[in-house]
Amino acid sequence: MPDVTSELRLPWDDDPEDLYEHAPCGYLTTLPDGTVVRVNETFLTWSGYTRADLIGHRRFRDLLTPGDQIYHETHYAPLLAMQGEVHEIALEVVRADGRRLPTLVNSVLEKGPAGAPRIIRTMVFDATERRSYERELLAARRAAEASEQRVQVLQQIVADLAAAPTEAEVAEAVLRAPEPAFQAASSSIYLVDAERDQLVAVASTDPTTGNWDDMPRSSTRAVAEVARRGDLHVIRTVADAEGHFPDLAESMRRSERRSVVLLPLTTGPSEEQGGVTVLGVLAFSFRDERVLTDSELRVIRLLGQQAGQALDRARLYDDARRREERASFLARTTRALDEEHRLLQRARRLVERVVPEIADWALVRLQVGPAGLVEHHGGPAPDPDRLETRTAEVIETAAPIFAADADGLGCTVLPLTVRGRVLGTLAVRMAPDRRGAEAERLFLTDLADRAALALENARLYEQERAIARTLQRSLLAADVPGTDPRFAVETYYQAAALDMEVGGDWYDAFLITANKLAVVVGDVVGRGIEAATTMGQLRSAIRALASAEAGPARLLEGLDRFCDRVDSARMATVVYAEIDLLSSEMAYACAGHLPPLLHEPAGSPQYLLRARSAPLGSRAGDVRRAEHRMRLAAGSRLLLYTDGLIERRGRGIDRGFEILAREYARLRDAPLKGLTAGLADILVGRDHGDDVCLLCLTLGTEERLERSIGADPLQIALLRADMRGWLAGHGVDTDCLNAVLLACSEAVANSIEHGYSDDPFGVVDVAATISPDTVEIRVSDRGHWRGTGDDEARGRGLQLIYESMDDVSFDRDAEGTTVVMRRHRGPESRVGEP
Amino acid sequence: MTADQWVSFSRRGTAELVHLKGEIDLANANDIGRAIVARTTVADAVLIDLTAVSFLDSAGVRLLDFIVGDLDDRGKPIRLVVGERGAARMTLQLCAFRADLLATDLDRAAAELGG
Fold first, then answer.
1. In DSSP terms, which residues pair with A613 in a beta bridge?
2. Angle formed by the axes of helices A528-545 and A438-476, to 10°?
3. Closest Cβ opposite residue B61 in set A734, A796, A832
4. Would you give the DSSP letter of residue A502?
5. Contact yes or no for A509/A520 (Cβ under 8 A)
6. Which residues of B touch A832 (CB under 8 A)?
7. Lower CB count within 10 Å: N or C terminus of chain B?
8. Which of B57, B58, B94 comes nearest A831 by C-beta?
9. B58 to chain A: which residues are within 8 Å by CB?
10. Separation between Cα atoms, residue A172 and residue A584, nearest integer Å
11. CB neighbourhood size of B30 (10 A)
């Protein structure tokens, strides 16, 4: 039991003396010169001195290190004298055993009543702990500085990574990190090629290190192992490597490396091992054995994640850009192919698009026609035998064969397939880095599909075009009556240039009865096989509807009804005329068509503007069909034509009508044969964008045939055609006809060869008249005859004239030469009999 | 200009058979001549079928005369086959071509040439 009577001392009620002696700090009382006069037990314990050692014997500064003694003199003492106190001065006390005790010192100077210094009270704190803390701080600061440098390097790397748009640039940026950040000697980067299941060494700061072969992901090599495991491997020593990765130990020895870090570049949630995807491995190595601190390891792991993410992003970006490039290429190629309609041109354009944009060589081969079609571009061409073999295989299996490394060919061969049929093949040779990837295969397959469709369409177009052409030709070439001396028909059809499809223009001439002739020119709306077919149907319909009684107006009404059943015939235009060969009366009607142009022997050509109504089957137009009748003088020429003849870009249609009428008049004396072709030539030329169709009818036999032809041997045959018809029209018998034709031809040939030997623009006038018993031909030129008739060839010509005619006279003067030849029409025949 | 529309060729035994058709005149005789000569200069015998010729002028005569002369010089036989009537016969007769050159029957002419 405690004695309740004794003086009770509370635990915190310290004895002042004990408090002084055993305070948690040292106390010293010194004289103003520093001589110790009182010291507590705590200071004695810390310093290892006895009270007797110090009191009266030592000054405070004698207890300090030499450096601090100076500091005491220069700072402590003057400060104390001036301010009367100093605080937290760090001084090291040298203990009795010589060890140093770091302290913090507070001192107060007490003054006497007169203000003179009396004593100094000094409190000494043990600063050992604090010093070590400061040292730690310092070490920490140094570490922080190193870390900061690392962080700066890494920040730069991260910034570089963020800016790197491609996988290659990311790899380059990552590769540059380890040297400045960790003082590595060199580094290398490997990327995972998932398609090929390989690890590919892409870059190194020192390519003399390491093994640079690509390796399968299943390889036992250290890099592959790390890529599979997905976690950081630090190989501190060669011996360390020896145990796990012999290949690495070998390469470390060879390149004199002591430590290696193998860092997987990962993306995905790093916590869950399963979720990490390894995109590559960064390997860096040190010449000395290097111990990496925890913070360095943290930073390294962080680098692996940052680089992994950047790679991932760059790959996505690469993929997106590739996809965009491919999509754009496909779109542009499809458009470019559409611009060409013909098969050959389309095939050509295909290979020219493919090379050089995606391949350095391309060849398209189509199984069309007997010989097939081959177009190629770029080069050099691959081995033809291997290509042949592979192409055959592709056609056989209808499946693409993609280029593979070391396949000896290096080309991808794609089947061009439409609706399950292999139309041909497309072979391309691309840069090796574009091979293999799945996306690239899809792209090529897509390209082949589009190309196949475009080429198949061109083939069909080509086929349709050929069919339409054939159809149209066969319809147009059908028998235009040609032997009746009462009329002559000359036709001309010129297809549009510039690869246009066939148009729906047509002409026709036929006898409705023995004495009634029908002539037609029409134009179906549209082009191609449908227009050609419709044209054929309309042509047949007109032949069926034409009758001795109907007449043009009723025929057009019949065609209107026809349009109700054959809608493609709607809005076709037709000019139709019937000519009574006995009375020379013509009835005509125009359904939306250009007016016929009539040239009678007297006067100038006139457009026939009566009996006009709307195109066939028109719903908006006036389809009350009318016809107009008129009598034609013998020798009249009627021209029917389609709009291609007078419509021309940059020329008004009125002007077109004007020019046609003028040229038609000018050709009044030209032979009928060749007249329509000549008109087309003059009015539209060869380079025109529309079909041109003409029909010229000469009615009746002129009493007098007058023709003017150019000094061109080709014109003689045209003249002969007219004259043959004229002679036949007048009932001249065959022998006489042949003889007159021969004599006339020879006379004209003479004029051309001799009269106009130096004048290609000369004109030969021919006039023929006939009486019941005589044919007279007069041939005139205005040339200058050079030779006489004595050269052998012309001599034979003259001989033929004399032999074939009864009476020949030459009249040659300065103005030119006229030969007049006559032959009796009598039954007696001088030549031609067996 | 090509002469194909007026001239074509075939063989009848050892003879080169030349078919002519259409109108032969100043405008096309040279082209036709070149085409024929290219085939007949080395021929051992030549038959020229003129039955389909609808017109023959002095330029055509000159052409035939040249070919006949060439064959004669080389001692090779030639026959010109013409119809019983018609423009070609008329012109050749007017020019007084040798009767032994003219024939009316292709087969007989070929036989005469030993074809």
1. A591
2. 20
3. A796
4. P
5. yes
6. 85-86, 89-90, 93
7. N
8. B94
9. 746, 749, 793-794, 796-797, 799-800
10. 96
11. 15
Region class of A9: left (phi > 0), else alpha (psi between -120 and 50), else beta = beta
Q: Which residues of A touch B87 (CB under 8 A)?
A: 738, 741-742
SS3 (DSSP) at A372: coil
Instruction: Please provide residue B18's backbone torsions phi and psi, each rounded to the nearest 5 degrees.
Output: -110, 120
Report whether pLDDT(A833) > 60. Answer: no
Please report residues of B whose CB lies closer than 8 A to that of A740: none
By the CB < 8 Å criterion, does A722 face chain B?
Answer: no
Helices (H), A230-383: 238-244, 246-254, 294-338, 343-357
ipTM of the complex: 0.87
Closest CA to A161 of A312, A283, A316, A281: A312
User: Considering CB atoms only, which of B25, B62, B104 is closest to A716?
Assistant: B25
A409-459 pLDDT per residue, tens: 888 899 998 888 888 999 998 876 654 477 788 888 888 998 998 988 888
Average pLDDT over residues A90-118: 89
Order of all β-strands in the sheet with A215-216: A215-216, A198-204, A186-193, A277-286, A259-267, A233-235
A804 and B90 within 8 Å at the Cβ level: the answer is yes
Chain B residues with CB-CB distance to A674 below 8 A: none
Among A736, A741, A752, A823, the residue to mutate for chain B (most B Cβ within 10 A) = A741
Task: Say whether B52 sits in a helix, a strand or coil.
Answer: strand
Q: Pick from A42, A213, A219, A227: which is nearest to A126 by CA?
A: A42
Q: How many CB pairs (< 8 A) connect A and B? A: 80
- Cβ burial of A566 (10 Å; 0-12, 13-18, 19+) is middle
How far is the C-alpha of A311 from the C-alpha of A317, rounded, in Å? 9
* Category of A101 on φ-ψ map: left (φ > 0), alpha (ψ -120 to 50) or beta: beta
Question: Per the structure block, which two tokens stand in for A667?
Answer: 């050709």
Question: Would you call B55 and A745 a contact, using CB atoms and an 8 Å cutoff?
Answer: yes
Give, in order, the Cα–Cα distances in Å from A75 to each of A71, A80, A325, B96: 6, 8, 78, 154
Q: How far apart are CA A326 and CA A446, in angstroms?
A: 10
Total count of residues recorded for chain A: 834
Sign of CA dihedral A640, A642, A648, A654: positive
DSSP annotation of A166: S
Distance (Å, rounded) from C-alpha A823 to C-alpha A727?
A: 12
Q: Do B58 and A717 touch (CB under 8 A)?
A: no
Lowest-pLDDT choice from A123-127, A498-502, A694-698, B35-39: A498-502
Measure Cα distances from A612 to A121, A294, A561, A639 in Å: 138, 103, 18, 16
pLDDT 10s digits, A598-622: 998 778 899 999 999 999 998 888 8
Contact A203, A189 (CB under 8 A): yes
Each residue's pLDDT tens digit, A568-607: 899 999 999 999 998 989 999 999 999 999 998 778 899 9
Using CA atoms in the order A722, A726, A729, A734, what is the torsion angle rounded to 10 degrees?
-90
Which of A87, A120, A79 lies closest to A105 in space, CA to CA? Answer: A87
Q: Which of A792, A803, A804 to mutate to test the interface with B (most CBs of B within 10 A)?
A: A803
What's at A488, amino acid-wise?
A
Return d(Cα B59, Cα B79) in angstroms, integer: 19
How many other CB atoms are there within 10 angstroms of residue A164's CB atom?
Answer: 21
Query: Which two tokens mark A821?
Result: 């030849």
Q: How far is A768 from chain B (nearest CA, A)?
A: 19
Distance from CA of B64 to the nearest CA of A (A): 12
